[in-house]
Amino acid sequence: MSDDLDIRHGGAIAVDTAALRDVGRRLAAVGVRFDDAHAAITRAHAVVIADPALVTVDAAALSAAGGRAAALGVECADAAARTALMADAFELVELRAQAQAMGTADTAEAAALQRRIERLIASDDRVARIADRLVAEWKDGRFEGLGDQYDLGGLVAPLFWGGPLAGTVLGLGKVRPGMTLRGVADPVTVTAVRTSTPTGAPTSLADALRRFPTTAGAQVKVEQLVMADGSKRYIAYVKGSQSVALGGAEPWDMRSNTQLYAGEKSASYQATLDALRAAGAEPGDRVDVVAHSQGGMIAAHLAMESEYDVRVQLTAGSPVEPTLDDDQLIVQLRHTDDVVSSLAAGGSPEGTGSPDSFTAEREGDPARGPQDLLLAPHQLDAYIETAEQVDASDDPRAAALGEYWSELDGAVEITATEYHAEREGAESGAELRGVRSRFSRAGPSYSADGG
To answer: What is the DSSP secondary structure assignment for residue 185, as one 8-state letter?
Structure first.
């Protein structure tokens, strides 16, 4: 596992405050035991000093033991108090994040939340200061290496820093409840271009990221898994952008990127829905999603507003963070120096998804060089390396993901279909083909795995 890989639930706090308070109570109880021991040793020392018959007992050693017990009692009491203080600060961060998510809702729940916040702040003037510092440290670390990566003579960095700034200032990086896609998507035609029968389902996070469609022009692959009980479930593998154009035949382009980021329906989102229907998925069916880049925005809305039952979402370099329910698992791979991932504004303080959900984060490409202009930290290959580190991790949340792979291993039949989509009535044209060709030559994986 890489030393710089950070695995957490997401957001500013990755601590169970109830468990932390329990630790504090246990420390306090141990401190009381040491106090009792000190009192008993003190009494014994007094007896030894007063009784000449006990002259052979080492009174000095006994006194030293009593002093040590007293010191340990003080240390435990101090540690218990500090632990309780940190638990209050962590809870304050979480409650403030919940209050922010609620917005201006005038409900009994919101009022109770505010009262708890006020009680925590009033309990100790250090609580709010520590909570502020925790959030500040989290914010500082969300984009580690991003400024350096693109600081080519000071000319390019401001352009790329527009990513996190846009997500933070405009509030576009977090998909909140009720933020459904607006408008009407450009009409698309979706065609199956390859069907295969894989010998097994994904067995790891890295394996899942290697299963994107490989047929030229295909943007989505849907695997239909028939389980031992005869039920069917689906896994959609949704690629990132395939074109830097702002329109044309290719739906996975910058037009769809900007539409999705602004909360509008895109041709790529519609094409993904059409591909799922073509693969046999019906409303209410279980559909899990593996997505890279633009595909992460598609995955967010599939999980939050589609007719499908999306319980697992695995994303790499997504420009947004969805707000998922407690029964939806999300694993987010993010590079702090990935400008596309930075559009999510570093995620949200409260995190998202089920308790087993997590974000795995590291600096994808610490070295500075011309590869930065090709978005090296954003490329799928870089995220597969991160996925391999997660797979090798002994973090309990990463280990819990193994249960999902075991569940998929129960499939008795798998059919994989790759789909190619085009906007209806649009022509890519020689100019667009030339743009795609230049980017493909400049970066070997850009045209297949771009933002």
So the answer is: P
The span from the CA of 419 to the CA of 72, in Å, is 67
Cα separation, 369 vs 380, whole angstroms: 19
- Segment 105-115 shows an average pLDDT of 82
Min mean pLDDT across 46-60, 63-77, 197-211, 340-354 is at 340-354
Going by their DSSP bridges, the two strands 329-335 and 220-227 should be labelled as unpaired
Report pLDDT for 433.
40
Q: How confident is the model over 25-46, as a mean pLDDT?
A: 90
Tell me how far CA of residue 399 lies from CA of 38, 205, 250, 290, 391, in angstroms.
Answer: 44, 11, 38, 18, 8
pLDDT at 144: 54
Cβ-contact 261, 343 below 8 angstroms = yes
Residues 345-354, mean pLDDT to the nearest whole number: 70
């029964």: which residue's tokens? 327
Amino acid present at 300: A
Helix (H) or strand (E) holding 133: helix 125-141
Cβ burial 260-280 (10 Å sphere, 16+ → b, else e): bbebebbbbbbbbbbbbeebe
Q: How far apart are CA 363 and CA 5, in angstroms?
A: 8
| Higher pLDDT among residues 370 and 175, named by residue | 175
Q: Is-contact 207 390, C-beta < 8 A? A: no
Q: Among 450, 448, 451, which Cα is nearest to 215's?
A: 448
**pLDDT: which is higher, 400 or 282:** 282
The predicted pLDDT at position 165 comes to: 45
Query: Which is nearest to 12 in space by CA: 130, 105, 136, 102?
Result: 136
Dihedral sign, Cα of residue 333, residue 339, residue 343, residue 348? positive
C-alpha angle 68-72-76 in degrees, rounded to nearest 5: 175
CA-wise closest residue to 168 among 198, 200, 135 = 135
d(Cα 73, Cα 140) in Å, to the nearest integer?
A: 37
Q: What is the DSSP letter of 350?
A: T
Examine the pLDDT at 385 and tell me if it is beyond 90: yes
- pTM as predicted: 0.69
